[in-house]
Task: structure prediction
Amino acid sequence: MREIQGHGVAMITPFKADGSIDFDAIPIIVNHLINGGVDFLVVLGTTAETATLTKLEKIELVEKIVEVNSDRLPLVLGLGGNNTQELLGMFDWFNLSSFTALLSVTPYYNKPNQEGLYQHFKTIANNSNLPVILYNVPSRTGVNITPETVLRLAEDFDNIVALKEASGDFQQAQTLIKLCPHNFSILSGDDEMSLPMILAGAKGVISVIGNAIPEQYSRIIKEGLSRNVDKAYLIQYQLLDLIRMIYFEGNPTGIKVLMETLGLCENNLRLPLIPSTKELTLELKEELKKVMHI
Result:
């Protein structure tokens, strides 16, 4: 397997003004990310507004990204849900041979306990021919997978290989890094916390900000992994305001402002998400100007 580490980007889905997917923008975005030094791409993650895509749109979007990527970077497919049996059926929607791993979020809304989470991911692992990356984001799902449950899954299933940790709890991140086997990767799911997590032992990040400024953010990750702490934090603090600002009115609301400003795609979202306010849009554009020379 091509190892999943370094700087991964959770790709946005570009939309036209009429709400349809802008397939013409996909090559522009993919090449922008590859030229920016990204290590792997994540397709159909939260940032892709996957919850608002139809089955056919998901299939067509995946096919287009696979085609454009042309095996240049490892691809990770987001495949999660809160109906375990229905999720298994989604494995047949895609040609998984082009993917390095699956990224599967903890079940949302129905709030399973830790044993329920274990059984859910056990079922996925037993039915997946690809390595599985767990995804913990309690602010969205309403449930936190504990380090002890992650360790149990890592030890019991060889094909559960990593965790995207986005709890926002640095103590939990350190506990995960301490407990989990060395060959199990902890990846940051929070752009602001990626560097401190990497310096604590995490192996990379799946970012949002990287959609717009992959080159600058990749430098943070590379310097962090090389333990060039001062260089990494110098760039981190230069980008920090922008990293925070893109989330002020939700995700991918902020990042799409930046991407339209850079000429990568139009700033269109699908309901229930709406474009950012004029005030935030202006602030984002001004802050983007400041960091483009970094």
